[in-house]
Each structure stands twice: as structure tokens, then as C-alpha cells.
Amino acid sequence: MSQKIHSHLLDNGLVLVAESMDWLESCAFTLVLPAGCARDPAGRHGLANFVCEMVQRGCGELDSRQFSETLDRLGADRSASVSAAHTSFGAATLADNLDDSLGLYADLVQRPLLPESQIEDARQVCYHEIQSIEDDLAQLVMHEVRRRTYGDPWGRSSQGTRESIAAVQPGDLRRFVGQSYIPAGAILSVAGKIDRSRLCDQVQSHFGSWQGQPQLELDSNVRHAPEYVHLEQSSTQVHIAVAYPSIPYNHADYFQARGAVGVLSDGMSSRLFTHVREERGLCYTVYATYNSLRHEGRILSYAATSTDRAQETLDVMLAELIRLSDGIDESELSCLKARVKSALIMQQESSSARSGAIAGDWYHLGRVRTKEEITERIDGLTVESVNQYLAENRPSNFTVVTLGAERLEVNGPQEE
Amino acid sequence: MDFKTYTLENGLEVVAECNGQAYSMGMGFFVNAGSCDETAKNSGVSHFLEHMVFKGTPKRSAADVNRELDEIGSHSNAYTSEEHTVFYAAALPEYQSQAVDLLSDIMRPSLRESDFDTEKKVIIEEICKYDDQPPFGAHEKCMAAFFGQHPLGRSVLGTTESVSALSPEAMREYFQRRYSPGNIKLVAAGCLDFEKLVADVEACCGDWEPFETKRTTQPPQGEAGFDLIERPSAAQQYIVQISGGPSAQEPERYAHRLLATIFGDEGGSRLFWALVDTGLVEYAASGTYEFQDTGITMTVMSCHPDSAKDSLERLRQLQTVVQTEPITENELELAKSKICSHIVRRSERPANRLFAVGSGWLQRLQYQTVKESVEAYQRVTVEDVNDIVAKYPLDQTATVVAGPRADW
């Protein structure tokens, strides 16, 4: 199974990245637009999300219902999401239906109808989304920790507020599409059973005449100071979120950072699972995960537990994060290597997983890391190299957010 | 693609779909044990036992089990449902023998008291987690309302009280009633060496003592009704409804799933266009579940508390309309495309085939290729779906509403 990855830059700036997986019957694509909520104008937070809802309500020759039914007939399982940096649309279908599906999304990004008759319905959808997150305490606490650790605009959540959604006018929608649904900075990734040269032709014919002015880069100016915030809520559990700085995905030491967080949280023998859950029975859910913007990264960690055990849970979590800088051992690293390698191979069984992964790689690196390269980098990790990284990048400057019935104490060393 | 089976003398059955083209394999022990085998007194024991299975054996400590699962690079987990408990691992083919050795060892757990006490706390946190989470117990309450005294009406997790009261002895006694080799299947899918699999299973599980197991369930009577859960701090109102459907044994289940897709799929369904697309509610969708003796359609809706009564009324109207305005050919074709494309794409991962093959064998002693599954859906006609509408009316439901509204 040698990996076949191709990229092709269209004249208008759109990049096509394709991975051929001949052993599959399916195909998946991800269309990533430089239309993230970090681009929402002041007073209009939630606009990217509103637009994402509206463009799916008809495009080209098709109204909302025809668009949806055509995709259903193609058996296309689809997704749409908005992050700080991007609006992304994805679809997975059987390989024969790829071309037709791509054509529909070409209409969606270039010729959305934005029907005024549907704006109020879409606005209601946005209100509902804001309200539903209020009941999802785990998501709420993670939103808050992201907002604080990444600052504005990169830490924003995409939903906006009731007030900012109420303020959105039809002109805002059209302006946002004009400025951000553009080929420069957009990535179209395709993975699965494809014919490379036919795909290039198809993409050229669907997207070749797409136009738009490139956007200016957004700034980032975040301070890394420790912070603790408690949000009062009459819940059964206290939800705990911890964030601390890490390096971005495009950094030369990325694999050292990834190895370190893997020791914390990958698999059933990882440190957080073992010391917080297995040995002490403090919680059901506990994890830490690596997260990256293009210019900076974070480790985000979460646990939820009953109020009377929340302080102990936070203490043990923070102690494990801090202890990481004392180093990892050989057996932890070898487990991690085995897991990463099997995950890499299993990714080859899913066109959707690959299409998402290669789009992400292209955004962060301007190229795709092959399976061989990742295997080599993972094999090259040693206890010494990870420990040296950890000694130079000690987990510190924690942003802690808790949500629940009682405020906690953040104990132990905080600032580097 | 070869389907193979083998039965050990003690009754343990090995069932495998071998696909030499696959890159990985999935394997799991599927046990005929779930909350429907429990009583009010030991409610939650199946799920608690599922956790305890990972807590070590005479040969391995809990830490050994977790470490070895990671050492073979496996993605492993377990789940408990009303009728089954499943322990599984997805791994690369080179680890096949190690996976058998490890998974079969943990199926004979020590159930040590100190581990039991620590794990009990984890289970209670799991129960608390769901207590904080939408739909705030409405799912369990609706199952209880619909199934009444039938064991399917009992929560899989149990309650804080029932789990707190469980003893290691009660769990051992339950294990001795359900985990007989004849009541367990080892299911595998993907790139497998079947002969080696059988030899390894013989070596690892051949000495398991068989004993008698019996599942005594009666076909339940679905009951309509209405209940309210008050949750003053919730932002939205949540509505859960259950109506009847065919069991896992009945061929009508294909038409039933198509009906649920037409009526209530998350996108492109009657519920979607009438309620979600228009912004009336946040979420509204229906899905089907099949059990040994019965099946259900479950509909879940969330909306603003102020409009919740109107939204429920709209939902009821849509359910009534299905009875009078028959399903169309176009709706059926769209639903078939969605389901069949989904089946084919899912089947590309051996870990997904594992569950399809395993549940088919557990529920029906029947193996179906991907092609046969797709054909079964393709054969369904509009008349078949409209027959389901008549036989299992969507408007005869148990309904539970949870959220801030105290008046209803």
C-alpha cells in the first residue's frame, strides 16, 4: 500500500489535494474555505455560522429542498462546520457519485441564492444553536477555556450571541460570502477511489472560474498568564477544563509534543486515565488533547466529577500535567508508537478520515505528511528527545475554568 | 470475503468474516447479557461487570490489561445494551494471536473487591454525567413508561442506589448465570488467519466450564402515556417519544428503518423540513431500535421552552399525517439511497463489519454480506412501508418531556 498523494494549484488560488485509495468503493471530499468565525465583524459574531446555514438553502439552479434531495439521491453523507479559521463542507459518497457531488458544492460556494425568504428561519436555527450549548456543560466549559487561552479572535466559538445574530442583515450575508467564500486560501481535499487526471479536469471545470480577492491575514496577540475562572451552575458534576501553551503543528518539534500528550491521554494505560480514573475512581471522563491553530498550539484537558470530589480531581490532574516535565519512560513511549502506527494504517480504511487529514495538513504545512514520513518521525522519537522537549517546554501557565456548584482552588506552581 | 464458523466443545462459537484485502481486523466477545437479564435489585450489574472485566484476572492486574491493550496498538472498548455486552479490539493483523490471548483472559475476570469499590465510584460518576446532560433522564423514563414492568424498561446503567447496593458476590452470581461459553460468541472481521484463530481460541477458552443459562423474557406490551421531568436550570425543553416496531427477528425491520428515515432522519425527512429547517425546533429526529422480541421507533426533539407545547402538537400532527398521507415513491427512493450508501461506506472498516456481523449472528444466527444487506433494503416497496405505518402507528407513543417548564 504505497501512498499516492497529488496536489494541484488552480490559477485562482484554490488548491486541490487528492489521495488515491484504490481499494475503497467510496470517495470523500472536504472543502475548506478561509471563512472562519475569526473573520466575523464586530457586532456580528456568529455571522460565519449564519452564512454556513444560509448557503445550504439553495444554490445555482436548485432551491433548498432540491439541493438536499439531489445529494440524498447521490447517497452523499455530508457535514458543514465553522471553526475560528474556516468554514468547511464535506461529503462522502460512492466513487461514481463524486463528480455530481462536487458540482453541487461548486454551486454552493460560487452561486449561493441566500434567499431572503429563508433568513428568519435560518436566524432561528442560529438562536437554537446558542441555546442548546447552554445545556451542554462539557462543551460550555471547553468553549470558555478556548476563549480565554486563545484570546480574540482565535478563541471565539462560532455561534455568536443572541444580540449579534439578531443584528445580522441580508447585506452582511452577501458581503461575507463575497469576502470569504473565495478560492485564494481555500483547499479542496479528495480521498478515495479516484482517477487523478479526470479529477483534475472535473475540479477545473467546476471551480476554475471561481473568483475573489485574497483576504488580509488576521493578527494574534495572546498573553500567556495563568488564570482561574469559575462559572456558577447548579449541576451534579463540576466540569473542569485546563489549557496550557504548546507549539503549533508546523513546528519542527511537533512530534515530541504529540508524543508527550499521548503519554498523558492516548489509550487505556495513559497517565490521566490511570491516575485520575483507574486508581482513584475520581471520574468517568478525563482526557487531554493537542490542538493547533496555524501559529500556536495548546494542550486542552477536561474532566467532570461530583462536587465533593472536584477539588481532588483538579489537584491530581494538575499534578499529572506538571509531572510530565519530569519525563516519560520507555514503556510509555513504545505503547504510544504502537497506537499511532495502527491508527495511521486504520486511517487508510476511511476516505472521510483521510480527506479531513490531508486538508488539515495542507492548511498547516502547505503539504501532506505521508504515512511513511509519519512512521519515520514516530520511530525516531526517543525517551531522551521527548524528555528534552518537555524540559524546555514545561507544562505551565495554566488557564483553568470550572463550571459547577462550587468554586475550587488552583494549587501548585503555576507560572514559569 | 469468506464467512466461517467453528464451535468449541464447551459451546463457545467462533464466527468470522475473513477479508484478505483488509488492512486491519476487529474482534470481540459478544455476550448474551444485558439489562434485560437483571432485576430491580441488581439493576446495573451487566454494565458494572463490563467495567470490571478490564480490572484484571489471576494472570494480569488491571494495569497489565490496560498496558497490553495499548502495547498491541489496539483501539479497544466495550459496551452494554439491554440485551448484549460486547468487548472488542481493533488492531493490525500481526497482533491477532495476542488480541485473542488478552481478550479471552479478561473474559474470566478476578472481580477483586478493592477494584470493585474503586470502579463503583467511576460508575456512579457515569450516572451523574448523564444526569447533567440532555435529555436529563427523559430517555430512561420514556423506556420505563413504554415497557412498564418489562425488563427492557430498566436503565442499562442502573441507578445510584442500585449500583451502590451491589456487592462483589451479587456480581459473581450474575457472572455465573450469564457468562457461560455457550452464551458467548467470539466474532471477528477483517484480515484474519481463521485456522490460527480457532487454534488460539481452543487454547485460550477450551477449558471454560459450560453451565446452563436461560433468558426468560416475555414479549412486552408497549404502553402509551405522558410524563414530565422538571429541570428548572435547563435552557431548552426536551421531548422523547417511543412507539412500537418489529423485532430483530422480523423481515419487516427493513421497511421499518426506511419509514423512520423518511419520517425522521436528521436531514431531508418530513420532521426536518417541517420543524428543523423552519427553525421551529432545535433538533427533531427518529431512529429505530431492535430487540429480541420487539422493536421501537424513538423520536427525540429539543426546542425553546416557550414554544414546546406547540412544537409537540406539530410533531403529533406530523405523526398523524403519516397515517393518512401515504409514503411516496420519491421519499422511499431517497431513503434507500441514503441507507444503502451508508451501509457500503461503513463496511470499508473491519471494525464496523465486526458489529454488523456480530449483531446479526447474535440476534438471528444469520450472516449477511454487504450486498445482501443492500438488496434487502432495495426490495422494500411503498406498500411494505405503508403496512408498517398501519401496524405500528407513529402517533401511539409514550412521551416524556424534560426541561424548565413546570406547567404542561
Distance between the termini of chain B: 56 Å
Percentage of residues assigned to helices of chain A: 40-55%
Number of DSSP-assigned strands of chain B:
11
N-end to C-end Cα span of chain A:
46 Å
Low-confidence stretches of chain A: none
Key attributes of the depicted protein:
heterodimer; A: 416 residues; alpha+beta; Cytochrome Bc1 Complex, Chain A, domain 1; five-stranded mixed beta sheet; 13 strands; 43% helix; 20% strand; globular; B: 408 residues; six-stranded mixed beta sheet; 15 helices
Report on the architecture of this protein:
- The complex is a heterodimer of chains A (416) and B (408).
- Chain A has helices at 47-55, 64-73, 98-110, 119-134, 137-150, 162-166, 170-180, 196-207, 254-265, 271-278, 307-323, 330-347, 351-365, 371-379, 383-392; strands at 4-9, 15-20, 26-33, 58-59, 62-63, 77-82, 87-94, 187-192, 227-232, 237-246, 286-292, 297-306, 399-404.
- Chain A has 416 residues and is α+β, with helices and mostly antiparallel strands.
- Chain A has two domains: 4-207, Metalloenzyme, LuxS/M16 peptidase-like (Cytochrome Bc1 Complex, Chain A, domain 1); 227-404, Metalloenzyme, LuxS/M16 peptidase-like (Cytochrome Bc1 Complex, Chain A, domain 1).
- Chain A has a six-stranded mixed beta sheet, with helices on both faces.
- In chain A, helix 1 (47-55) packs across helix 4, helix 9 crosses helix 15 and helix 10 runs antiparallel to helix 11 (307-323).
- The model of chain A has no long low-confidence stretch (mean pLDDT 95).
- Chain B is an alpha+beta fold and 408 residues long.
- Chain B contains 15 helices and eleven strands.
- Chain B has a six-stranded mixed beta sheet, sandwiched between helices. Chain B has a five-stranded mixed beta sheet with strand order 7-11-8-10-9, with helices on both faces.
- In chain B, a hairpin with a 4-residue loop joins strand 9 (283-290) and strand 10.
- The longest helix of chain B is centred in the first third of the chain and has 19 residues, at 113-131.
- Chain B is globular, with a radius of gyration of 22 Å.
- Chain B starts with a strand and ends in a 5-residue tail after the last strand.
- The model of chain B has no long low-confidence stretch (mean pLDDT 96).
